[in-house]
Design goal:
Layout (H helix, E strand, L loop, with lengths): L1 H17 L10 H41 L2 E2 L7 E2 L3 H8 L1 H32 L6 H14 L3 H10 L5 H8 L14 H11 L2 H12 L3 H9 L4 H12 L1 H16 L3 H7 L16 H11 L3 H29 L8
Antiparallel strand pairs: 1-2
Length: about 325
Amino acid sequence: MGSAVTHAPAREGLAEDSVPRSGPAHSPRPAASARRGRRENLAGYLFMSPWIAGFLLLTAGPMAASLYFAFTDYNLFDAPRWIGLDNFSEMFADPRWRHSVRITLWYVVIGTPVKLLAALGVALLLAQKRRGQAFYRAAFYAPSLIGASVSVAIVWKAIFSDDAIVDRTQKLFGIDAGGWTGDPDLIIYSLVALTVWQFGAPMVIFLAGLKQVPRELYEAADVDGAGKLRQFWNITLPMISPVLFFNVLLETIHSFQIFSSAYIVGGGAGGNACGPADGTMVYTCYLYVQGFENSRMGLASAMAWMLLVAVALVTAVLFWSQKRWVHYEEGGR
């Protein structure tokens, strides 16, 4: 009897060992899940491959090449020759380069605020319920659908040329200033008028922001006796400040990149490529002149990288300044 008692645990242990275990090590399900995950990842990479190839061949590759060319003497016909920082030294000493910087800054400082003010003003009008609201929204947005195309710039140049619509309208009021496109001091304002005319995109964004402002805030302000101006300053602007920041950031970057309208309105190819007396010599226009008309790709690459650095600095300043005037909802940061 004692012997039976002695061997019972051994038989119980043997019985336990003979039972098949169903733990993770003996289950084929994790391996199948891993294979399915690899197949899904492969499918995702295959769908992304056109974008990846385009990014490497059309964006990352050219950027890396231009960074190398910025430190070389390269004219499209001869092999690039390393010259270090000579392109940057020549660029900073060039009076036409400094003039292009001034023209570009003037365009950004004048054109961007006026465009945003026009977009916000029209958005405030369209936010009110009225008849034909959908038609007015479409009509005001229509110019932005055309974009800054060459055809629009050609038409714009004709409108502001001598003895055209603007010139004749000025003469009706006794102003004989001539066409804006022939005046080095006025031609830049024709570009500002063009960019303001195409305020549809920021207008739609402002309109979406205005729709998100709670009506209860205006009702409470009415009860407290606040006028429309005080409501706009203390309610509307703080509530749409994130949208305003987005539009300021986007339109500022776009203003630094202006090219086609400045080149076409200024006169196009030839000795008058960027306006009379370089009146529309914005930064990108002078970059084009150096790169494609003077065949100085090394210098043009250096100018392009300086533009990238400048836009990055302006963007950083805007993001730093938003802490002072952009108001997010609690938890929105």
